[in-house]
Amino acid sequence: MDAVRFETTILDNGMIQIPNFQKMKSKKVEVVILYKPENEQDIKEKEAEEFINKWFGYFPLIDSDQARYNAIVSK
């Protein structure tokens, strides 16, 4: 039995892309899925992205330079 190792991501529709699949075409294979642990940075980025996507339309866009200027002038 030969083994092939590669990293990929399962797409939203459940599909897995296999590199160099032509060598395996029409052959029986056994698939074993090993979950790669997410590191803390990936988890934080994912949570931040989900937060932004959820709340993006609720907050007005402001010009940060103008806000800084107004804060300085008001002091």
If you had to describe this structure to a student in words, what would you say it looks like?
The protein is built from 2 helices and no strands. The protein is rod-shaped. The chain is 36% helix and 0% strand.
Q: Which consecutive residue ranges, at least 5 long each, have pLDDT under 50?
A: none
Calculate Rg over CA atoms: 23 Å
- In terms of DSSP E residues, the strand content is under 5%
- What is the helix/strand order? HH
User: Mean pLDDT score, rounded?
Assistant: 82
What's the number of structural domains?
Answer: 1
Specify the helix fraction band: 25-40%
Structural class by helix and strand composition? mainly alpha
* Total strands: 0
Number of helices: 2
Q: Describe the biggest sheet?
A: none
Shape: rod-shaped
Q: State the end-to-end distance.
A: 75 Å
Which key phrases capture this entry?
single chain; 75 residues; mainly alpha; 2 helices
Briefly summarize what is shown:
It is built from two helices and no strands. The model has no long low-confidence stretch (mean pLDDT 82). It is rod-shaped.
Write the layout of secondary structure elements.
Blueprint: H1 40-55, H2 64-74
